[in-house]
Amino acid sequence: MSLIAILLLLTTGLTIAVVGTAPFAVTKGPPELVTLKQAAEAGDSESQYELGILYQHGTGVSDHLVQSYCWYARAAALGNERAARQRDALMKQLSPADIESCQTSAGTTRVAARDNLGSASDFAAPIRLAQDPQLPPPSSPTPTPMVATYQDALIDPSISEDPVYSAGRADKVSDLLPGSASVEYRYYNQSTSGITSGGYTEHGVAAEARQETRNYGRFEARGIFTDANADGAFYNSFTGGGYANLTQRGFALTDRWLMNNELGHLRARVPDILSQGYRIRLTEPLVQGAFSESRSDTTTIRLGGGTLGTWQGRTFPVFSTDASSGTAAGMSASTRITPSWEAAGQIWHSSNVLTDTAGTTSFTSAAGAMRYDGRDQGKAQVTVLGNSGGDLGFWMDGEKRLWGWINNVGLYRMDPNLKWIDRQNAVITDTQGVYWRGNTRSYRTNYAFGADWAQTNIDKDAARPTRDNLYGYGNIYYRATPTLNLSGFLSLGQENVSGAGIDTSDNTVNVRGSLSEAILRGTSTWSLGMVDRSGSNPFTRYEGNWDHNWNPFAAFNSLRAGVAYVQQTSSTSDYSEVQLRGGGAWSQDGFRVGANAYLGFLSGEIVDSNRSASATLSLGWQIGRGWQVGADLTYNHNATQVTNGVESRVSDLIVLASLRYDASWGQSQRVLGVASSAYGSGTIRGVLYYDKNGNGVRDADEAGVPNITIYLDRNTTVETNANGEFSFTPVPSGEHELTVNVANIPLPWVIDENRRITATVRPRDSATVEIPLLRIGPN
Question: Are 99 and 91 in contact (CB under 8 A)?
Fold first, then answer.
């Protein structure tokens, strides 16, 4: 039997009585309903299932749910799988007494409740689809006037074929996504007097902008221009420069691959396990060129290159080739083989670059690493670096938790002529060694110990000296009380240098201790230290410090004061110095003031003066919406300056001023639906229509269904418009489920509950869904 009884119930408000435990005696009601019940009582499982639907989606009172459960159970006993799913879902809503009231025996269900199917208005509540009982619960039923009862044009020819409905309205999507921009001017001036004198002035302007896009990721642009002039001690060839960068981030190539692109002046990325090693790290060069990165959940591939350079400038960093030359091009790949194993490799080809050992040269270098991360089982990494000239470098790092201690161990060996990219991006060479680190911590204590051995001139070249270093240390921290902390540090080192006419030996002892306590509405820290070096280059240095940091109060964000004493003896340049220092920061109503100062008294073999001083004043002011001004003023008297390896004392005045404007716009887009691990987003477009001929394909004469709520992944809704159309955007890439709230679907039209409605979204694409309504009853 069909669900045509639903139409008859909604339009007539039929009431049928069932008394006691006798079989249903259906004696009144529309002929179709009488036939439906008679077939159900005769053992037709589909009729029993349809009656269960009628009772379940009645007024929602207990009596209806109990009778619905009874009919579902009766149909399930005959092998109806849909009825079994509905029975199991409905069981969670009933009490044990309700369930016991239904006793299935010999195909007969005993119903100990009155049979009241309700009136048409009782069915106005949203109806959950049979195949998806986990939808949000229906809202409270709203009585519907009889005049609003739906009339089907196929039944009553006097009704227009395509009646005019008020259009449904989808959520509005913001046209302008978040973005920001800023422009800033900086002025820097430094004038120096003393043994050497000179001046340096620099102007700099920087502008940057960021903009999120719906389909192409985030774009970032930054440009800098500086102009500089210098004389005297500051004279050099740098007269200013520029910087320009355009970056695209988060562009979804597919739902599994994401791309980042950079053009201009940039830092060329190296796989993390190569650039972030425990002891030896491979640097990332600064280039003027282009780089592209593509990555998935497990793999990252990079490709690019350009002209090598360095940063210069005092106002803003700009690209410069004054200290470097040549070009570098490279590619890298890293992949997670398993959850515990990761591998990476990097190849560089450097052309006409400056190196420390070979002058200007061209070569190819390659590095590869394998990392194991077994979490509690330990960690290990092996890395190899080689050049086209045959030089090799090898290092291994490991970590293991043992008896409550985290132990890090490693060894390395780097050939004398090993090269990475150029002299600005070099790797340590001509050395070998081993190390161990161990630490453990608890709430009150933290212990850390370590030992190192390193040696240079590993090829035993007679023209070069061999340096052997042996070093060990221990550090202990103890939290005596919540307000009192103690720590101590001891290190022992030995350095021996021999060969090439040199024969020296030095032993170094370094001892430090500190105590910090919360007193005087802040925290005070006392520390004492001594460094004693004996042997060929002896000296002894004593240090003592006291610092106090007050807790923030009033408009003061910080306030601190301190005293320091340093004395060096038994050396070629003995001296002693006392420093008084203090500082603080204050802010209120967009105005900020910061100050730091120290006054030092020197005695010993020091040029110029026996008194040193330094003071810095920082000012910042939010002068309007988006506008900021700032200034740093620094004065140093008797400061240390090293020129061509010679130490001298000078005085200088430094001024840095800035004016900045920031602007932002747009609003973040709310991604609709449930996100998966796929990248990117797209759109779901669809239509809900009357499938008159039941072929599952929308024909030209089949109208859309307006004002019906469509669910996306059970958490986002939209209503169909006058043509039955709907859309969701942006939707994360991946598969999504659509469901229909059937409360307002005009009868005799229904949703096929056996059909799961899904849409697969791909980046920057539209997934199209056509949802048919089927007509129940005779065509």
Answer: yes
Give 511: exposed, middle or buried? Use CB within 10 Å, 0-12, 13-18, 19+. middle
User: Do 288 and 420 belong together in one domain?
Assistant: yes
Domain edge (last residue) among 146, 176, 204: 146
Radius of gyration of the chain (CA): 40
pTM of the model: 0.70
* Residue 686 β-bridge partners: 726, 769
The separation between the first and the last C-alpha atoms of the chain, rounded to the nearest angstrom, is: 15
C-beta of residue 693 within 8 angstroms of C-beta of residue 777: no
The count of domains in the chain is 3
Does residue 125 register a pLDDT over 50? no
311: exposed, middle or buried (C-beta count within 10 Å: 0-12, 13-18, 19+)?
A: middle
The 10s digit of each residue's pLDDT in 602-635 is 887 654 457 788 999 999 999 888 999 999 999 9
Structure tokens at 715: 């958490």
Q: What is the arithmetic mean of pLDDT over 553-568?
A: 92
Using CA of residue 57, residue 60, residue 64, residue 66, what is the dihedral sign?
positive
Looking at the structure, do residues 261 and 142 belong to the same domain, yes or no? no
Instruction: Tell me the residue range of the domain where 98 lies.
Output: 4-146
pLDDT of residue 101: 62
pLDDT digits (tens, 9 = 90+) for 444-472: 999 999 999 999 999 888 889 999 999 99
Residue 663 lies in a domain: no
State the DSSP H helix or E strand holding residue 467, giving kind and residue range, or none if neither. Answer: strand 466-481
217, 248 Cβ separation under 8 angstroms: yes
Residue 658 maps to a domain:
no
The CATH number linked to 356 is: 2.40.160.10
pLDDT band at residue 295 using 50, 70 and 90 as cut-offs = very high
How many degrees, rounded to 5, is the angle at CA 383 between CA 382 and CA 389?
A: 145
Which CATH number belongs to the domain containing residue 762 in this structure? 2.60.40.10
Region 375-400 average pLDDT: 92
Which of 116, 146, 176 is the C-terminal boundary of a domain?
Answer: 146
Q: Is residue 81 part of a domain?
A: yes
Beta bridge partners, 368, equal 345, 384
- d(CA 484, CA 438) in angstroms, rounded, equals 25
Specify which residues 396 forms β-bridges with: 382, 411
The answer to the question of residue 164 being in a domain is no
pLDDT tens-digit map of 305-332: 999 999 999 999 999 998 888 999 999 9
